[in-house]
Amino acid sequence: MTRRFSQKALLLLAPLLLGLPAASPATEASDAAETLYRQRLAALMGGAAPETLYQPLEDVPGAPEPAALPRSASGDVRSGAIGGIRVAALSAAEAYAADSKASAFLVWHQGQLVAERYFDGVTAGTPLPSKSLSKPLAALAVGRALFLGYIRSLDQPVADFIPEWRGTPKAGMLVRHLLDMRSGLLDQGVSADPDSPWNRAYLSPDHGRYIVNDYPLSDAPGTRFAYSNATADLVALVLERATGRRYAEFVGHELLAPVGSPGGTVWVSREGGLAHSGCCMLLPAETWLRLARLMLDDGVMGGRRVLPPNYVREMVTPTAQNPHYGLGVWLAGPYVARRGFGAPGTPGPSVRHGEPYLDKDLYLFDGNGNQTIHVSPAARLIVVRLGPTPPKALDWDNTRLPNLLLRGLVDPPALVPQPTGSGQPTGSGG
Hey, what's the torsion of the CAs at 421, 296, 133, 231, to 10 degrees? Predict the structure, then answer.
């Protein structure tokens, strides 16, 4: 009788046939995780787009019947305006978005959708990779958890949810520090080293456990701004432990559904693993417009309060360590010609500002690749640009889209421009 063994069975039997101890299931699982980690790292270092690594994906529910966005009529041809914005300004802004190779361009003004354009086969329902737009979404999710009583305060210790940190230097970290990037955890960076904490915290199939147990603390919590994906990914862990609910389910039912948004997906490190709350949600472009609307209306949508009163004010208030960052959102702050993404004064990539913002209170969601959602509270204007990184020849200007449209308002409010300073760069990339 001839018995055939599968390849897996032979691998399991080989140590016994050679007189070696058999690998335990835990060892096998660990080896498989390490192999997957190194495959992900090799793909990333080989130039793969990060979103191609987003496997597996977990469904994020949304509104059962997404609410229609109010839309402007075609406009008065004689006045040359649509929705209170001159056609010439809208056309110039759309052309700039097109030149940037945008996938989606949307403009919201005074309670209605004024412009909506999709490119290269993208539609209103296409889920698009959000990159770091996920960070303000995570901050909004924390606001929802505060409103529902799952979290007591922004100043509640993170160690209440990560008891592994009690009695350690990380015990001083507060919930707000995960949102304003003052956790004290190591700044974001780039390395090809498989043992780099940046890579382990991002690509490990058990990245949450790695961040909790091994990601280094470089500064006392609350003392320094240090942009970090590891910091942002801890938000998902805190929310899951605070609520007893999956991050995707909580975000979908408690944030997307109340704003009338369709759902999408989010990258989890492995089946049943922790979601990447700092980078990797895939949602239609209009979702970001809806979330910006929620902020414009102080956390109220359709007469229903979703966020605590004044929580949005907290989100758009800078810290002493960075005048251009609040809770997950970037702020106009004092004008600088180039604004970085990391600790002020450190070298690294930065984004250009060709002139001061025309609204000093402007804030924005800012994702890798110059994916931006600019919000002007004074004009009640929202401008969405999603898509890949603009061509280098364009030399993307972060102020161009909002300022074009603010200058094009038919009946502009009394705008106070961004204060000018030295115009020198602040911060670095991450």
Answer: 80
Taking Cα atoms as reference points, which of 333, 330, 337, 336 lies closest to residue 359? 333
Residue 17 backbone phi and psi in degrees, to 5: -65, -30
Total residues found in the chain within this entry = 430
CB 136 within 8 A of CB 179: no
Residue 357: inside a domain:
yes
With respect to residue 47, please indicate whether it lies within any of the assigned structural domains. Answer: no
CATH number for the domain including 214? 3.40.710.10
Residue 394, judged by CB atoms within 10 A of its CB (0-12, 13-18, 19+), counts as middle
Take residue 242 and report the two structure tokens written for it: 């605070």
Asked if 324 and 227 count as a contact pair (C-beta separation under 8 A), the reply is no
Encoded amino acid at 383, one letter: V
Of 341, 406, 415, the closest CA to residue 109 belongs to 406
Chain segment 180-214, per-residue pLDDT in tens: 999 999 999 999 999 999 999 999 999 999 999 99
Buried b (16+ CB within 10 A) or exposed e, 332-345: bbbbbbebbbbbbe
Residue 286 contacts by C-beta under 8 Å, 6 or more apart in sequence? 69, 106, 124, 261, 262
Phi, psi (degrees; rounded to nearest 5) at 154: -60, -25
Residue 394 DSSP code:
G
Domain count, the chain: 1
The pLDDT tens digits for 398-408 are 999 999 999 99
CA angle 339, 199, 194 (to 5 degrees): 135
3-state secondary structure of 340: strand
DSSP state string for 80-129: TEETTEEHHHHHHHHHHHHHTT-SEEEEEETTEEEEEEE-TT--TT--EE
Provide the domain limits for residue 294.
Answer: 53-423
| Residue 160 DSSP symbol | G
42, part of any domain: no
Residue type, 348: G
Task: Please confirm whether the linkage preceding 21 is cis (ω < 30° from 0).
Answer: no
Asked if the structure places residue 33 within a domain, the reply is no
DSSP letter (8 states) at residue 422: E
Rounded CA-CA distance 325/343 in Å is 11
Of the candidates 63, 59, 60, 111, which has an alpha carbon nearest to the alpha carbon of residue 260? 63
Geometric angle at alpha carbon 190, from 140 and 39, rounded to 5°: 95
Give every CB contact of residue 246 below 8 A, 6+ residues apart in sequence: 58, 240, 275
The predicted pLDDT at position 349 comes to 85
pLDDT digits (tens, 9 = 90+) for 215-234: 999 999 999 999 999 999 99
Count of C-beta atoms within a 10 Å radius of residue 399:
21
**Residue 339, H or E segment:** strand 338-340
Helix (H) or strand (E) run with residue 47 in it: none
